[in-house]
Each structure stands twice: as structure tokens, then as C-alpha cells.
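Sharing a chain and its predicted structure for anyone who wants a worked example. Both blocks are below, sequence first, C-alpha cells second.
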Amino acid sequence: MVENKIFNLKNDVIFKAFFAKKGNEEFLIDFLEAILKIEIEKIEIREEVNLEKLKDEEKGGRLDLQATLNDGIIVNIELQIQDTDKMENRSLVYAAKTISRETKKGTKYQDINQVIMINILNYKLLPYKEYVSDTVTVLNKHREYEVIEGVKWYFIELPKFRKAKPDMDEKLNQWLALIDDRNRGWIEMAEKKNKTIERARVEMEYLTGDEELKRLAELREKWAMDYDSGISAAREKGIEIGRQEGRTDGIKIGMKTGQAKGEKKKQIEITKKLLKMNMKIADIVNIVGLEEKEILEIKEETNQEKDFDD
């Protein structure tokens, strides 16, 4: 681990620890007011940061932040550093899970609270120049009529923000400058114009000095790097296997059988490496192509071998 490394809010462990910490409500309120353009009188964090739970989640679990505003609006914030396939679909699933979790038996449809999904991305997602995009669901022939108001998505793309010439009089740009932590001049301007940003920066310096939190943040970054390496290696291996399969056209059945065994062996080897990285079973299924049952059997065999070696 790198000594004396300074972390910022783009590390999702730090992000959640900062905004979910008891006593830091003013920062989350100021940030959300800037995005949603509403006045927030009351906010309730669904789950205050818990270092013990973060120890479990840092290995690759999803670290999102959920809060309830004013009259019951549910806001879910997720920070996504690495590009993931189909981020829109991913956020759709999370929204559905949030609604399901918040809807108790007997709840009337009209009483279901609005859910707002805020995705802060450190990569480009949408093919448009705007760095803040929000969605509405309208009728095809009557675009002025919003037919579904229960769920709304925001996508904030930090790379586009960096290349823009943001108006630092706008509160949202002030917060994005602090979160992105790439332009010191913008941050200084934000602090001068918004005292909440100034206090937030001081709190960040204090928070990132906590050795236990720094350790978790470093582990989270390492997991992300290992995950990306595993994905890349698996994809390259899949491409190579595909090429090999293409070259086997017309080869005798016996040779095909031998190759199939070789490919199976490679799949098992890759699976073991991904399991060692603590990757989720569902992700391994998508990458390697084995059945979930086969992967679980490999995991059990690997654990038995480890116990024997110990």
C-alpha cells in the first residue's frame, strides 16, 4: 500500500464515509439541493457509515448511499469509477430493488414514494456534451406529458465536467469540483463562494487522515484494479479461445474432443483466479461461460485444497 496517499471523494469508501457520517448532513443537503433544485428541510440517512460493514463491502460489494428527503423522496447515490457494461440497465435494476425494499405489504400505489437515482461517473456514458443529464418518461406523441413520475435518473459525467468551462457561481459545479479534485483553482473558487464547501474540504482532510479508513480505501482501489485486470484477462482469453475454435473447423472429432478438454481446463484455471480475487459468482458465469453449479464445485474443491495445505 502507498504510504501517505491522499484520497478524495472519488473513492467510494471515502464518499460514503463522508456523506453518511453523522454530523455531516449539511454537506449532503447542500449537494442534493444543487442537483435536484429543491429546498431540503429534513434528511435521513438510511444507513450511517459503519467501518465494520465497510470491511466486508470493500472487497467488491456495491457501496451506494441512500437518504430520505422531506416528504419521503428516496434518493440513491452511486459513485462509479470504472466503466461497466449497460450502466443504464444496472441503475434500472437498482431502482426497482429500492422501490421493492421500501414498499411494504398493503401499501397503496399512490403512496409509493418517488425514487431518484443519482449516478456519478468517472467515465463518459452518453453521446452528448452535457455533463449532467436527467430523465423523464413521457408519451411518444405528447412529449410535454410526463407519464411516470415515480422514478428519475441523473447521470453526472466527470470527464465532461473537466473539459467544460463551468460557472463556479453554480452550487453543483462547486461540489463537482470538490468531488473530482482535479482543478485546484476551481476548488479555491468554490470555497470562496460557498462556505459549506470550505467546511467540507476541512472535514475531508480530517476524515482522510483516519488510518483505518485509509486502509479500507486502499483495499477498495486494489480490488478495483484486480477486478479490471481479471475482466481484461478473461476477455482476452475468450477471444483467443474463439479464434482457436474457428481454426478447428473441419478437424477430426478426436482432435475437437481434445481441444474441448483443453478449453475446459483453461476455464477452470481462469475461474480459480477470479475466485481468488473474490469476484462474484454471477460475474464469473458471464465471463468464463461455466454454469453456476460448476463454479460452486470448483470453489468447494479449491477451499478443500487450501484446508489440506494448511
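Comments welcome. Residues 1 and 96 are 38 Å apart (CA to CA).
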